[in-house]
Amino acid sequence: MNTSTHTKIHFLDYQIDVTRRSVRRGDQILAITNLGFEVLCFLAEHAGELVTRDQLVCHAWKNKIITDATLYKQIQRLRKQLGDTGETRNIIQTLHGQGFIFLPEVTDGVNVSLNETPLKTNYLKNLMMLMGAAVLFYTVLSFTRNEEQNAPVMNMNMDAVAEPLILSVLPDRSQLEPEEQSWMAYGGMHYLIDKFQNNIAVKINKLSKTQLTATDTEKNAIKLTHNRTIDVALVLQVTEQNNQFLSKVILRNTEGIIANESFSSVAIKELLDQIYLWTNSQLKLDNSNLPDNSLISENRYAVENFIRGMSAQFAGNAAQAIKYFELATEVDDQFWKAWYELSIAYRKQGEHSKSIAILSTLEQADEARPLHLGVQNAKAVALWRLGEHREALAAIDNTIKIAEAENTQIVHILLTNKSIIATEMGDLAIAEKAIKRSIELIGAFPEHKPRSLGSAYNTLAGINQINNDLESAQINAEKAIDYFMLANEHRYELTSKSRLASIHLELGNHKIAKHMINRVLTEQQKLADISGQISNQIKLAHLFIKTGEFSVVLQTLDKIAVLLNETSNKYLQNQFLAIQIQYHILMNEEHHVPNLLNQLKGKHINDEQLLNFSLLELEYYYNKQAWSAFDQSLNSIKQELTNHPMINFWRSQYAAAHQNQAKAVSAMQNAFDDSGESITKRQTRIKILNAFSHMIINSDITKAKNLNDQCEGLNPPPYPFLKIKAMINASTNHYFEAASLMQELKMKAGDYWSADDQLMLEEFQHQLNTNSTEISRTH
């Protein structure tokens, strides 16, 4: 049936109005998109016939290159809108590998088949009807278009044009050695992406660093097109010989290589511009009405430095990136994209104030308007890194509003960032609300699903961990790992495995944690992930302190010090200072501590970090018996933290050191009560339970045993838990159990085992032998 000669088409209880481009079912108008309407009309026109994929694409998508996934998604959406369940009705049948058949019988506007009209007797009549229909069609179409221009925008995707072609640019890894040649391909990739992003006919699929650094580029391109991740892969090879830039380019889709070409130029900008125009021509993309890309410079020297800077940025060399971006902006002070990337490089180098200054200027530049969403997000991140968390949260909220108003698909990413910032602020309610909304939104954008869900669940695991909900933390970290594996995001997968290792560390599963951390470290070394290695070496240092492997702690600290020379990450530097202080206090090397405390002082970005600093300071003064300084530190603690369980713990220790047993027990009871009612880390609870049970062994053995049993349920480190349990048993004359526990501790305590512990073991053995002798004499 030819829809071009019919204003209305009927099938089942549906009516297609060709002139008004609407579909009715009874009195209900269905929300069919323009693209869906084209597909439906074409299938109805060929009712009962096999319509091949190519025929349908030729008609509805105007021969545009699309993936099978795009086609089948459109068919699936159309079936859903028509109520085509395949059970109660079957409208569109799929013949896999062949095409589609429209099954219902189709009639014209008066339900009469064309075949029932005698052609010869009614020729003139039909001709007049067709002419009238054509006049009516164009009259109504003109009216309808005018009405559509004035009509309010409906909240649905109308698919006014064909879906954009999804394109990825891949540097050819086989041509990236030596290193001095690699900047052209990686930097050139970013330049081409910026060029294509100005074209609404193309949607750029930015690949992750893991995907871009895959050893076999050709195999990666085949995989990406074959599994329908993208429509077309542009494989880019660029070299420089005799002051000439040379390039070989391959375009590939799911069927194989579409085209390939070689290019040359004395300037890399002109070379890449040639590639851009050639690619548009090969893919039949219309560039006639494209606006000028005001973000990119026309100066070839500025562009070359920009490309070099982007390559350095990609390689993680922020200092080198800054040098090239500064050169690019000196040559062209209105090279907005170079200014934007310079702000990112400054942030990565730890120069957050410079980054914010540039971003604030870009906010005011009308020519940089296309960058404003990215600018707002970058500003929020820079404020966050600067420690201005409240300002960062306000900035990210503003960014979310802009993104929602522009209906962009990055709102879920911004919500994840908001959750991370709120978590560091200590506002876990905001953090959890934001990350759960992010997870909900990700479902609306399935192409982002695996990687984005991985990020979201990893963030949620961190919130669970802070909330001491370690079971949920473990589940969500494992989900994150699965999603990152599905997305082939190895670097992020390692981040989630690192999170899971820290959860096992907190649960007391030291062997599992150690095994996981070492495996992750091996992979991070291969990827040259400096920050990841530092973070995990710090975890190992904490683990070795718990297990009493002090000599290994020192070796680990030395490794961290070397790695820190390659990064300016202030957060990791502060973590390193804290673990050094903890180690030197433990080893009674107090002479190292004051300088480290001074370096760490004032570096906190939330109350938890401020608390940790205060606890390190109190422990140092306590061990040194510097009571005046201890009092001063205790009295200077922020009001909101004065009743924290660990502050009461140190009040108790101070009172005990001054022989005030009643005050010591009272303060430790407060610490115990608060640690049970509030969100407290498992290690804090263990420390309080150990200290409290030890404190009251001689005064309340029943309560001491009860506290020791509670501690055992938390899977505590062997030292000092087993020692306290042995002392409780000895106090009730159970010397066999006491001696056995001390023997077990001797095997597990590592460097914690001391001469005093050995004497205690020998005392319990002596008492056991004495009791055995007395029993023998009695019998």
Question: In words, what does this structure look like?
Answer:
The chain contains 33 helices and 13 strands. With 779 residues, it is an alpha+beta fold. The N and C termini lie far apart (112 Å). 63% of the residues lie in helices and 9% in strands. β6 and β7 form a beta hairpin.
Strand order of the largest sheet: 4-3-2-1-8
Inertia-based shape? elongated
Number of strands: 13
The CATH superfamily of the domain at 3-150 appears as Winged helix-like DNA-binding domain superfamily/Winged helix DNA-binding domain
Which value, in Å, is the CA radius of gyration? 35 Å
Distance between the termini: 112 Å
Structural class comes to alpha+beta
CATH topology label of the domain at 3-150: Arc Repressor Mutant, subunit A
- Report the β-strand fraction as a percent range: 5-15%
Largest sheet: 5 strands, antiparallel
The amount of helix comes to: 55-70%
Overall pLDDT metric: 83
- Contiguous low-pLDDT stretches (5 residues minimum) are 110-162
Under CATH at level 1, the class of the domain at 3-150 stands as Mainly Alpha
How many helices? The count is 33
- CATH architecture group name of the domain at 3-150: Orthogonal Bundle
Compose a concise summary of this entry.
By secondary structure, this protein is α+β, with helices and mostly antiparallel strands. Among the domains are: 3-150, Arc Repressor Mutant, subunit A; 165-282, Rossmann fold.
